[in-house]
Specification:
Elements lengths: L14 H7 L7 H40 L4 H22 L10
Helix pairs in contact: 2-3
């Protein structure tokens, strides 16, 4: 924000947001870490799914190119397909409604 921009008031948190975001003062570092990891787990899984999908698409495409003699077309197509699958998974997790549990 620049000096010319008006300061915006933060949006008030819902009760569910307050409960999920609040960390009791008596919480140990291990409890805080466990809570953060539990909240981040779906995003970490989606990230690894994206990496695996892109990698498998590229390697599979490269293998098909070797068999068909069409370098680099299957590798490019496999990489693009893997990227699309990975982005879908990431968007599915990121756009899941809070409070409905993990996406299925």
């Amino acid at each position: 924000m620049t000096a010319d921009d008006p300061q915006r008031e933060p949006k008030p948190l819902s009760q569910a947001d307050k409960e999920s975001a609040s960390i009791p003062p008596s919480a140990t570092k291990a409890e805080v870490f466990a809570r953060v990891m539990k909240q981040a787990a779906p995003f970490l899984a989606a990230t690894w799914t994206m990496i695996a999908a892109i990698g498998l698409g590229a390697v599979g495409g490269y293998w098909l190119d070797g068999r068909a003699g069409t370098r680099p077309w299957f590798a490019v197509a496999g990489t693009l397909l893997g990227t699309a699958v990975g982005m879908y998974e990431l968007a599915r997790v990121a756009l899941a409604r809070p409070g409905k549990g993990p996406p299925e």
